[in-house]
Amino acid sequence: MVRSALGHKTAQIGRGPRLGADYVPAATVVLGSLIAVLPIVSARGWWPDAGLLMLIGWRLLRADAWPAWWAAPLGFANDLITGTPIGLSVAVWSAVMIAMDVLDRRTMWRDYWIEWAIACVIVGLAEFAQWRIAAIMGASVPLSMSAGPSILVSVLCFPIAAYIAARLDRWRLGR
């Protein structure tokens, strides 16, 4: 009773989340993947994987936003949009979701800096895996020139993705 008295004046008891709130996290991950189609030309691969950043941002914010198996279709959509080999993002994103599930069971609490460190490790491993697959397929690019800038930019862009996920989560739940 006290909580409802202290709440917002237009708040209603029993008001649930917005219509389609379950699909907002998945839609933002796909929109993050669509950033790769912007007409930005660079000689080196410095552009971050915004779809992966949004996936990590949502997963660290809310473990219950979607089940772990959603990583496969979202990764498949990312593969189709970005032009990476089909199955690369499916495998990497599924491994990321499994690793985050294990991490959730192992940690008692996390603050912002720990989540940023987790995102740094995950982004670094994902970019390294993409570089390794490219090297296996015949690309002759050194790690420092191809994956290094992308890892650095992705790590620096993670707070933006986490902020976007947090703001959209507040909007979708009607708070």
TrEMBL record:
<feature type="transmembrane region" description="Helical">
    <location>
        <begin position="112"/>
        <end position="131"/>
    </location>
</feature>
<keyword id="KW-0472">Membrane</keyword>
<dbReference type="GO" id="GO:0005886">
    <property type="term" value="C:plasma membrane"/>
</dbReference>
<comment type="similarity">
    <text>Belongs to the MreD family.</text>
</comment>
<feature type="transmembrane region" description="Helical">
    <location>
        <begin position="80"/>
        <end position="100"/>
    </location>
</feature>
<feature type="transmembrane region" description="Helical">
    <location>
        <begin position="21"/>
        <end position="47"/>
    </location>
</feature>
<dbReference type="InterPro" id="IPR007227">
    <property type="entry name" value="Cell_shape_determining_MreD"/>
</dbReference>
<keyword id="KW-0133">Cell shape</keyword>
<keyword id="KW-0812">Transmembrane</keyword>
<protein>
    <submittedName>
        <fullName>Rod shape-determining protein MreD</fullName>
    </submittedName>
</protein>
<dbReference type="GO" id="GO:0008360">
    <property type="term" value="P:regulation of cell shape"/>
</dbReference>
<keyword id="KW-1003">Cell membrane</keyword>
<feature type="transmembrane region" description="Helical">
    <location>
        <begin position="143"/>
        <end position="166"/>
    </location>
</feature>
<keyword id="KW-1133">Transmembrane helix</keyword>
